[in-house]
Structure formats: structure tokens, C-alpha cells
TrEMBL record:
Secretion signal span: 1-33
Keywords, comma-separated and alphabetical: Carbohydrate metabolism, Glycosidase, Hydrolase, Polysaccharide degradation, Signal, Xylan degradation
Superkingdom of origin: Bacteria
EC top class named in words: hydrolase
Natural source organism: Plantactinospora mayteni
Stored PROSITE patterns: CBM2, GH10_1, GH10_2
Domain CBM2, first and last residues per copy: 350-450
Name of the gene: xynA_1
Entry protein name: Beta-xylanase
Active-site annotation: 265 (nucleophile)
Spans through the membrane: none
Keyword Signal annotated: yes
Protein family (similarity comment): Belongs to the glycosyl hydrolase 10 (cellulase F) family.
Record's keyword annotation contains Phosphoprotein: no
Amino acid sequence: MSRKRTLQLMATITAAGALVAGMTVALAPPASAGTTLGGAAAEKGRYFGTATDPHMFSNSAYMTVLNREFNQLTNENGMKWDATEPQRNQFNWARGDQLVAHAQARGMRVRGHALLWHAQQPGWAQNLSGSDLRSAAINHVTQVASHWRGKIYAWDVVNEAFADGGSGGRRDSNLQRTGNDWIEAAFRAADAADPGAKLCYNDYNTDGINAKSTGIYNMVRDFRARGVPIDCVGFQSHLGTSVPGDYQANLQRFADLGVEVQITELDVQQGSNQANIFRTVTRACMAISRCTGITVWGVRDCDSWRTGQNPLLFDCNGNKKPAYDAVLAELNAGGGTPPATTPPGNPTTPPAGGAGCTASVTLNQWTGGFVANLRVTAGSAGTRGWTVAVTLPGGASVTSTWSATASGSTGTVRFSNVSYNGQLAPGQATEFGFQGNGSGSGMTPSCTAT
Ligand code: 9MR
């Protein structure tokens, strides 16, 4: 699709979105809108998925809903350590293979869940420690990620490694006791085994800015600065009867580190607030260009691990609940196409720099404001750093910037790289963006390599 066509589409979507936001969700979505969760998300360059397990694939009522509504699958249990390596170095791929085959046949993405976790370890691993456990764990990552190489959109490389409560530190576990570097060792092994998969850290109780999410944020920032290959952070979002007011701000601070953010295990306790909470979560994701998708943790209420809490979007008969209507309306109302992930820098091989760079802009404009996503591509010598100059139209101003530092806010504004995205190999690209007031039309970015 041409960029011009994209802009026209975005303008249409934005106008329709404004309309929906002002109405009650009971009204039908606009005629052009998606009519299923996956379809509506795909129109915005995102996925909408569910946890499932191949033992459900013979249930036709269940599969009717799954195949109609979702374009991403997570294996709820079948790709975990106890399922895939029940005896040391003896692998069982059956459930994972079945899920991947179903997804591939229908053009659905797969999130791999999860390579390393303190829970659901096979008995033999629970009994290991020290360097023996470390090498078994890295071998597990390598074997599993290699088996499904090229078939996984994103892997939860490490799951739930941070402690609850106020410490902001790591959870104690047999894996943690092998040394604090076990997480980065896992990410490096996963990257070597499946370089095309996005590599995520995934956790719960990270739904607002709190000690636990800040501990994770600091780890991700450190990984990006040091070139440890992390591409995404998963927010499980197992929610009760409320959602923190800073839910979106928390996602945004991670996105500002240059990683994708994904809602990975969403479910919400049934109650008067259920639809509103689902709406808030969906709206937050759609407002963040690096929020690439949402996964609910099961299809129908009776499929949920939260027995009796009815926390999903379909009742036990497969009927859509009010929460479903709320989510669908938000998907149809929300944001544009998310940009590609910014690759982490590689501090060990600084490029020569000096042979230039180019920049292009994609604009999402609405009445009174806009979001500009910029792509910087290094020339033949790579970059050590870069600056992109953008002259804003009269009356326009920059209100926030991500993945770059801005000089000034009106007239000609210069955006310079931050620590993790300045070094680009020849031909490598990275992305940054800014939000502005007024009109952003006609901006022509010019890039200088430093
Ligand atoms: O939903 C999963 C349930 O069927 C399993 O019994 C349980 C085992 O620990 O894991 C559940 O899924 C968890 C996920 O893997 C990680 N985040 C929390 C999920 C809910 O407990």
C-alpha cells in the first residue's frame, strides 16, 4: 500500500474512531470496521489472540469461536518446560507442533510460552542446581527455540522472574540461584537459536508503575544499553475489579525504551466493571504505537484457569459478553500501524560513521494534533549517532518524543539518538517518534550521521 493510501486510511479510521468514542458501545461499529477481534486488530497492524491447547481442537463449538475471532495463539501449557522436555534431553514436540500447524494453516501468529520459568519445571530440572542447572536451562532454550525456528512471532524467553512486593528485585528460584546473569544468558541463547523471533520478558502484577514493574524496566533499559537481545515486554494483565490509573503510562515508558509491549494473558474478574476494564486495557494498547497485540487467557469463561470468576470475553456457550463489544469497539476506534522494533545497539562493533543516513516520516493526523513516526536508515558506513531535523508547519509544536531527544518544540526541531539506538550497521534502520499539536502535514525530515 502506498504511503499516501496509508495516510488516507488512517484519516478515515481516526474520524470513525472519534465517532465511536463519543457513543455508547451498544451501537454498531462503523460499516468499514472489523467485525471480529482478530480482523479489527489486523486493520490496525496488530494481532488479537487467545491462549488455547490442542486438546480443545476437537471441540467444534469452541473451535468455531477460536477460528472466527482470533489471529494469534499461545499454547496455554503445551510449550512449557515440563511439557517439552519431560526427561533430560528427551523432547516432546507433539502439543506445540499441533498448535503451530493449526496457526500456520490459518495465518495466525504464535506466541511461544515460555522457555524458562520457575514453575512447571520437569522434576529432573527441579532437582538440579548450580552450573548443571544453568547448562540444562540454556540447552532447553536452544533446543526448543531451534525446533520452532521461523515459526514463532514472539517467545516469552523468561517468565515471572521478578519478586512481588516492594523490593523491585528478582524472585528467588533455582534458576536465580545459578547467578543473576541467567536471564541475559537465556536471551542470548534464544537469539542465536531463532534470530527472527521477537524475544520477550513476561510477568504479572506489572499493570501500573510499581516497584516490580520498575525493577523490570531497569533490567530492560540495561539490556538495551548493553545490546542484550530483548525485543518486547509482556504484561500478563490478570486483573481483578480495577485497573491502575497509570496502566497506559506504564506501557508507554517501556515502549519508550524501544521495545514492543504486548498484553499477553488478559483476563478480568467478572463484575460490574469487567467491560470497562477490558475497554481501558484495549484503549491503552491502541494508543501506543509499539503495543503490537493483545492475548486473552482463554476463549470462554468455562475454559479459564480462574474457575468461577468468568473472566473472559465469551460465556460458556460461546456467546459474546458486553466486554467483547467494548473490546471490539476500541479496536475499531484506536491507533495506527505499529512500527518495527528498534534493534538493540551492538556496543562491541562501533561502525565507522560519516557516510550519511536517510529519514522518512509516517503521519497519523487528527483534528488539532498528530503522531509522527520516523524511520532512520544508516548509509554505507553505518552511524555512531544521528540527528534528524524536521521543520514543523507554523502553529505546530512537539508535545512528547520517544526514542530520541528533541531540541526545542517549534520551528526546526532536531531529534538526536538516545543511548541504545545511535549505532547502526550499514543499511540498518531504527525508529523514533513524536506527538504534536496542530498540523504535521508537509514535514520533510533530513538526517545527518555523526
Ligand atoms: O493457565 C495455566 C494453567 O492451565 C496452568 O495450570 C498453570 C500452571 O502453573 O499455568 C497457567 O498459566 C499461567 C501462565 O503460564 C503464566 N502466567 C500465569 C498463568 C495463570 O496461572
